[in-house]
């Protein structure tokens, strides 16, 4: 897979996962512009996921959730942001 295609795919997965657990990155970044680096790091972390198929299935099955699944490499970050 080409690098930019992979980054784009994982950016979409990260954005969708964020939405499902109640994290609005546009709000986070508007309030805390310094979090832009954390967002970029989270997307790059997502590219190392070994459970992409399971993630896509989870995202398709859940309209919202209290937290990301255990295998999500960004679960802790999303949990902290969701709690505010």
TrEMBL record:
Residues 1-83 form the DUF6455 domain. InterPro entries: DUF6455. Pfam families: DUF6455. This is DUF6455 domain-containing protein.
